[in-house]
Amino acid sequence: MGEDGFRRIESMCLKELALSPGPLVVALGGGTLLLPENLETVLSRGVLVTLALETSELLKRFTSSRGRPLAPEPKALEGLLKARTEHYAGLPGRMDTRGKTPEDVAAAIAELPGFLPKLR
Questions:
Q1: Cα separation, 105 vs 100, whole angstroms
Q2: Chain-centroid distance, C-alpha 103
Q3: pTM beyond 0.90, yes or no
Q4: 87 with 38: CB under 8 angstroms?
């Protein structure tokens, strides 16, 4: 299937989810929002939150996670991060997660303008 095939399926699934009635929280992979049509779909349907973390912390987490097809080793992950940084820095809803627990991050997201009304 390759990355192109994966991205096509990912885009189709995202469009299908966007048509679902009611509130949704969808966690997307790092490459999803690189495609303009996916970004448009997300922004037209809800509140976008992108989680930012220092490269060193991501690399620590990476070494304890299962393999990733586009980044089978840490150097590849660093390359992906470098290639995507500028794009993600320009997106709305960027949240710095340094020093925050998952619970802290979830609470901060719930406080974002427009987030909870879309879930009710």
A1: 6
A2: 17
A3: no
A4: no
Amino acid of residue 65: S
Whole-angstrom CA distances from 109 to 18, 37, 55, 97, 105 are: 20, 24, 22, 11, 6
pLDDT digits (tens, 9 = 90+) for 55-86: 888 777 766 556 565 666 777 778 888 888 88
- Residue 72 phi/psi, 5° resolution? -70, -10
List the one residue out of 23, 15, 9 whose CA is nearest residue 42: 15
How far is the C-alpha of 6 from the C-alpha of 23, rounded, in Å? Answer: 25
51-71: buried (b, 16+ CB within 10 Å) or exposed (e) per residue? eebeeeebeeebeeeeeeeeb
Q: Which helix (H) or strand (E) segment is 67 a member of? A: none
Q: Strand 94-96 and strand 50-52: pairing?
A: parallel
20-68: pLDDT as tens digits: 887 788 889 888 999 999 999 999 988 899 998 888 887 777 665 565 6
Q: Which residue, chain included where needed, has tokens 């037209």?
A: 44
